[in-house]
Design goal:
By secondary structure, the chain is of the alpha+beta class. It has a domain of 436 residues. Helices cover 43% and strands 21% of the residues. The protein is built from 20 helices and 25 strands. The chain has a five-stranded mixed beta sheet with strand order 2-3-4-5-9, with no helix packed on it. A four-stranded antiparallel beta sheet has the order 1-25-24-23, with no helix packed on it. Strand 3 and strand 4 form a beta hairpin. Helix 4 runs parallel beside helix 7 and helix 9 packs antiparallel against helix 10. The protein is elongated and about 90 Å long.
Length: 714
């Protein structure tokens, strides 16, 4: 009988290994796919000494991908922490696919190392550990296919447990800190160590995080770290790092967004438009799931058998409560599967072990999509991974509860009940208050501009008399979109097109065409759909065009190691200005120019730059080299002068979000036009100098903008 069981296990392992190789490793070896270029491009920029200050800017990062010659695809560094690029730095000098080959081999080694540590921690045996690892079919397939980092996180989480069990508590906390530097979610283990009163582990985790934070500032600069902490992380925490309505994430926040929050383009048909229901249910359900786990955890270092199953349950909780659990995140569930299976088999609970393995396998299978089903039924049918993960987590809570000497009735009548009920009510009250405030300001779409054509992103508008031109994300590339009323059209090329700026009095515009270098090209906005025609090139090695109101001058940006310099060129000269066609520089890369705009006469240029840390506005006369700083205090960007020359619209950073402000050019008066815990950027004036068209990510993912309109001047 043992021999038969061994042969069955060998057969199962062989089948699973073949499926992994066929569905995951071999396709991963042959192509880049989606996520690996994100890390590769960032690592390449770092190794070249380029500034990473704008790494979380979708379009800027896409441009760097184009310059690196990576195959056509959409890339973004959202929502990754900066250290996510560092494992790729030694590989950044290689061609992308060759670099991925090395990374895949490294991941196999890390996976084997994780298995070795689990073997040292349990008694389940090598064969069964290998089977449990490969049962994570979809997580391993997507992880290797996309060139992800979660096997490294798995190795660090397992190492942290092994160190913890062997009384290396400070090193255990430091391992979690390193895992959190690569991917944010392991930081949740801070609450595990606090509940356990393992102060040395807490010290290792906190000191490790502080040390890595200081090193991050030295490596990447203060400004990009400020953007991460102040702007990016809060949006990730509330599930808005990407599209918050997609059911692909299989998260509780995504499900509640989908059911109760209306958004004109991303979620036009919620079950019911009731943001207050989201505001209450999201923290209520998550609190009911998390606080009982904290209560069940032993408030000390327990014996090894109990400690391992508590640790495994906490791993499952991290996934169940995550706001962004992609399939490859579930690689860390391998640790949970091995630890729990070992524990249940050792106490001869084979029925429970089989139930657990069934739930684990189902949670790691591809998600079924409910084609054609809408509302609650469609949302639930498309959330199978979430359902099975919650079932697995609740099963583990029941196992912990059954192993406890106290019944829940005894717990609820104890003095500890006051502590945990207080934790639950305090967390719930704070979260509901925060969510309601967020919903009140961010889920209002009174000025939203909608169109017949869907686009995940519509940003950086340029306004003409009869239309709005903008940058549109139309996978697998960026294009120039136009809106005339609600009639939408687009102009695409074989390369990415960014930042259209309309030439006044014509149907033509300047735009940035990004390839191995960027160039400013002339485009015809009346030419719709896809085209491979040769665009008329206006400027080589140039980005982000801005045309003067009289159509005679073109301002643009040239980058030097990721830092922008401001240039200008005549594009409509007369005979008296024969020499004016030469390009000349107005501001060097020390200003790190972000964007620029002309005044109403075309004689003055206002630009945003990062001369001393955070962005500020600067002013320069077109015919002189004198630069004066126009703003101080809060970070300022995105200047736009009204056509009548009276008003300056620009954006200030307030409480981690960009808001539009209006300033009179003839007085010190200014006032705030937008509010909320989301971004309003890239204002553009209508020809009558009364309204502003702008980009907003309110109710959407960070930087995934739509267009909106507001009345700025009575």
């Amino acid at each position: 009988m043992p021999k038969l069981r061994t042969w069955i296990e060998i057969l199962i392992l062989s089948v699973l290994a073949a499926v992994f190789a066929w569905r995951g490793f071999v396709p991963a070896w042959r192509s880049l796919n989606t996520d690996f270029p994100n890390y590769y491009v960032a690592a390449r920029l770092y190794s070249q000494g380029d500034s990473l200050a704008r790494i979380y800017d979708w379009i800027w990062f896409q441009r760097q991908k184009d310059h690196a010659g990576v195959e056509r695809r959409i890339v973004s560094f959202m929502p990754h922490p900066l250290y996510a690029a560092m494992p790729m730095v030694p590989l950044a000098s290689m061609p992308p696919l060759q670099a991925k080959h090395y990374w895949l081999v490294i991941n196999l080694i890390l996976l084997a190392f994780s298995g070795f540590l689990l073997l040292r921690t349990t008694r389940i045996g090598k064969m069964r550990i290998a089977i449990l690892m490969l049962l994570a079919v979809e997580p391993l397939r997507t992880h290797f296919l996309y060139g992800q980092l979660h096997v490294a996180v798995l190795a660090l989480i397992v190492a942290a447990l092994w160190l913890y069990l062997n009384e290396w508590k400070i090193a255990s906390g430091a391992a979690i800190a390193l895992a959190a530097a690569i991917k944010i979610y392991p930081l949740a283990f801070l609450f595990y160590f606090l509940r356990k009163r393992q102060w040395r582990a807490v010290t290792g985790l906190v000191c490790g995080c502080l040390l890595l934070a200081g090193l991050s500032i030295l490596l990447f600069g203060f400004e990009v770290n400020r953007v991460l902490v102040e702007q990016v992380l809060p949006r990730i925490a509330r599930g808005e790092g990407v599209d918050p309505y997609t059911l692909n994430l299989n998260s509780l926040t995504g499900l509640f967004h989908r059911l109760f929050v209306f958004e004109p383009q991303l979620n036009p048909k919620p079950l019911i438009n009731m943001p207050s229901a989201y505001a209450v249910l999201q923290p209520l359900v998550e609190g009911l799931l998390f606080v009982p786990l904290l209560w069940l955890l032993t408030p000390a270092h327990a014996e090894t058998e109990k400690e391992t199953i508590e640790y495994a349950t906490y791993v499952a909780a991290v996934l169940a409560l995550s706001t962004n659990p992609r399939p490859y995140h579930y690689v860390i569930l391998i640790a949970c599967s091995v630890l729990v299976t070992d524990r249940l088999l050792r106490v001869k609970r084979r029925g429970q072990a089989m139930l657990f393995l069934g739930l684990y396998t189902l949670a790691c299978l591809p998600v079924h999509r409910a084609d054609g089903s809408e509302g609650f039924v469609g949302a639930v049918m498309s959330s199978s991974r979430l359902i099975f993960t919650l079932a697995l987590y609740l099963f583990l809570l029941a196992v912990l509860s059954s192993a406890s000497r106290e019944t829940w009735k005894q717990r609820l009548s104890s003095r500890a009940a006051f502590v945990f009920v207080a934790i639950f009510l305090t967390g719930l009250s704070a979260s509901v208050f925060y969510n309601l405030r967020h919903a009140k300001t961010d889920f209002r779409y009174d000025g939203r501009i909608t169109s017949e054509a869907a686009s995940l992103m519509m940003t950086d508008p340029s306004v003409a008399t009869d239309r709005i031109a903008f940058t549109a994300l139309q996978n697998p590339r960026y294009a120039v979109g136009t809106l005339a009323g609600k009639q939408a059209s687009s102009l695409t090329a074989t390369a990415d097109l960014f930042y259209p700026t309309v030439i006044p009095g014509s149907s033509r515009a300047m735009a940035e065409l990004a390839g191995t270098t960027s160039r400013i090209v002339r485009i015809d906005l009346d030419q719709h759909s896809a085209t491979d025609v040769a665009f008329a090139v206006e400027v080589e090695d140039a980005e982000r065009p801005a045309v003067s109101p009289d159509g005679r001058w073109l301002a643009f940006i040239r980058e030097v190691h990721g830092r922008g310099s401001l240039w200008i060129k005549s594009i409509q000269r007369d005979d008296a200005e024969e020499g004016a066609s030469d390009e000349f520089r107005l501001a060097g890369p020390e200003y790190d120019v972000l964007e620029a705009a002309f005044d109403s006469r075309g004689s003055e240029i206002i630009f945003a730059g990062q001369l001393h840390g955070g962005p500020a506005l600067f002013t320069i006369q077109r015919e002189s080299s004198t630069i004066t700083q126009s703003t101080s205090g809060p970070a300022s960007r995105f200047p736009a002068v009204s056509p009548d020359g009276v008003w300056l619209a620009y954006c200030r950073l307030l409480n981690g979000s960009w808001q539009i402000w209006l300033k009179s050019r003839h007085s010190a008066d200014d006032r705030q036009l937008t509010a909320g815990s989301c971004n309003a950027t890239s204002p553009a004036w209508t020809p009558d100098s009364k309204e502003i068209i702008y980009a907003t990510d309110c109710g959407r993912g960070w930087g995934i903008n739509a267009l909106a309109r507001l009345r700025a001047v009575p």
